[in-house]
Amino acid sequence: MTEANGAIAPSEAEHDAAPSGATVERIGGLVVSHDAGVLRITIARPERMNAIDLDTMRTLGDLVETRAAERDVRVIVLAGEGGPFSTGADLMAAATGPATDPRVVMDTANRVVRAILTAPVPVVAQVDGAAAGVGASIALAADLTYASPKAYFLLAFVNIGLMPDGGSSMLVPASIGRARAAEMALLGERLGAGDAHAAGLITRVLPVEDLGAHVDAVAAKLAAGPRRALELTKRSITAATLARVEAAFEIETEGQIELLGSADFAEGAAAMLGRRKPSFGS
Length: 282
Hints:
This protein is of the alpha/beta class. It has helices at 12-17, 54-67, 91-96, 102-118, 134-141, 168-176, 178-187, 193-199, 208-223, 227-241, 245-260, 263-273; strands at 23-27, 30-35, 38-43, 75-80, 123-127, 130-132, 144-147, 152-154, 191-192, 204-205. The protein has a single domain (12-209, 223-273), classed as 2-enoyl-CoA Hydratase, Chain A, domain 1 (Alpha-Beta Complex), CATH 3.90.226. The protein has a seven-stranded mixed beta sheet with strand order 1-2-3-4-5-7-10, sandwiched between helices. Strands 6-8-9 form a three-stranded mixed beta sheet. Helix 2 runs parallel beside helix 4, helix 4 runs antiparallel to helix 11 and helix 6 (168-176) crosses helix 7 (178-187).
């Protein structure tokens, strides 16, 4: 974690992210609130468009794993502060920080998605902007994903010489089929919220002004529901649709470790950070 845990006086943005009366704390790059059975985790790195560095990813995995098991948590809501849900891994932090074993990076991302999929409570994603890279994986791992018309989903990996990870090579085709998934993954083009809903990738699209209230209403309904019945229902649906997700994690991890050490990724990352078009050589 990048900061010590502890309750803080919530900022204006944190007030917006939490219902009145909720307890609010900042934990590293996340803002966490808990009220009436609803645990809301907001990715709060707006200066980086909510890109996720390794510490934030690790903290997110810790929170979902541990808090979902608490009896007073009955639903988890995931959101992003200030517009984007998450633009994926923070390449700037990776480029300027200490070198990290690629396997540690992959295992940390996989742990977050696995924690969402296996949480004993429903997980709801609120997407009001970009959900790209591993940010898309996290949003699509949720049981219910609601978006505004401003939202889009992007498997941006190929644009920087990488392959889909965070389970997205299974999460996406499980929802929209092989052909549409291949288009997203191989072309690296964004899918707008309306098209994502029409394809079956997300649950519903709501007007910007209605999105938060709708997610709050859904979360309240789930929090008041029969916890064990919801847990077993979620488990059954996940087993029926994502039975081979662990195999996907393994394939993605081995492939991504290779690609993270490639010249194409070095060029892709440099091009992204330099805001230019990459020139791939391999």
